[in-house]
Amino acid sequence: MPELPEVETVLRGLRARVLGRRLTEVVVHNALVIHGDAERFAEGVAHRRVEALRRKGKALAIELGAPDGDAAAGRVIGAGSRGTPGACFLLVRLGMTGQLVVVPRAASLEPHTHVRIALEGGAEELRYTDARRFGRLRCCSPAELDGIFSRMGPDAPEISEAEFSRALRGRRGAIKGWLLNQQRLSGLGNIYADEALFAARIHPLAQPGRLRAPEARRLHRAVQKILKRAIELQGTSFRDYVDIEGRPGNFAPRLRVYQRSGAPCRRCGKTIRRLIIAGRGSHFCPGCQPRPRSTAQPTRKKTPR
DNA sequence: GCAAGCCTGACC
DNA sequence: GGTCAGGCTTGC
To answer: Per the CB 3.0–4.6 Å rule, which of A10, A135, A175, A257 could disulfide with A95?
Structure first.
């Protein structure tokens, strides 16, 4: 599952392989993975050079320069309501099973290949594949990108301890849900949320607003440490994730609780348990992460109408 | 049946 | 406004 470390790994791969190159032909095989109109997307992205790469949380933005003169003239840019041909961004959200890979254009098409973008030089292309099609590609203006990024919470590796503690204040519900909420903190998904809570020895049902200062500090440190280590190891490949060269990540052997329910805790030997919190399987060690006196309220039952 | 990111909408 | 369930989706 691509979370922040996996997206950062993809970004670094793109920086090495795609930065500075022009995108030429764009082919959308499945419009479902395109946010908005697929034709506009293809026209908007084609014939532009990759100028920079940015990331916030799990969102990856490929900055594209103004389109080439010839191509722009041929495509009636600026006609009608179309925006002026300035810089734009190719925004990528990988969802659960989205992958960006750079391969020779002649390489056989893997199943679920939804978008192909040829790279200048003719020999290679960037491909977007996504079995579950939860991911989305989008062409957006700088203003739109600013809007999208500003609605997301601070990037998890960047947030200071003070800011982190302040953000927890007054929050109800379960800390697990809080960690997964991208409007509060961006970058954590189910894997690293569970791992960070284990490392900080905090029960996933603990209430954010009731964490004591040392607990908040431990959690902040755990989040930073785990993300940093996972980036160094190029992410976790639980099932699908690969980087742009098709290589899996190396963090999986370091997982302490995620998908280990029923197995003994590597720290204390107690059996790892699993609960559903915020709709997600949540793995924790009852020995290392004792249930606090006051936890989040159990989910209220929906009353039938 | 379960996995999970993200969006929408319901509920308080 | 905050919080959370539901739905999307395919492979194991």
So the answer is: A135
The answer to whether A166 CB sits below 7 Å from nucleic acid chain B is no
Instruction: Give distance CA A209 / C1' C11 (Å).
Output: 39
Cα–Cα distance for residue pair A193/A176, rounded to 1 Å: 7
User: What angle is formed at CA A172 by the lines to CA A170 and CA A178, rounded to 5 degrees?
Assistant: 100
Q: Look up residue A213 and give its two tokens.
A: 């200062």
**A229 vs A65, A201, A270, CA distance in Å?**
33, 18, 25
Which positions on strand B lie below 7 Å from a protein C-beta? Answer: 2-7, 11-12
Residue A288 has pLDDT above 90, yes or no: yes
Mean pLDDT, chain A, whole residue set: 89
Q: Determine the distance between A111 (CA) and C1 (C1') in angstroms.
A: 43
Q: Which are the catalytic amino acids of A?
A: 2-3, 58, 280
Sheet of A136-140, strands arranged across:
A98-104, A124-130, A113-119, A22-28, A48-56, A59-64, A88-93, A136-140
Task: Verify if strand B has an atom below 7 Å from the CB of A303.
Answer: yes
pLDDT at A69: 62
Measured distance CA(A245)–CA(A241) in Å, rounded: 11
With 0.70 as the threshold, say if the pTM is over it: yes
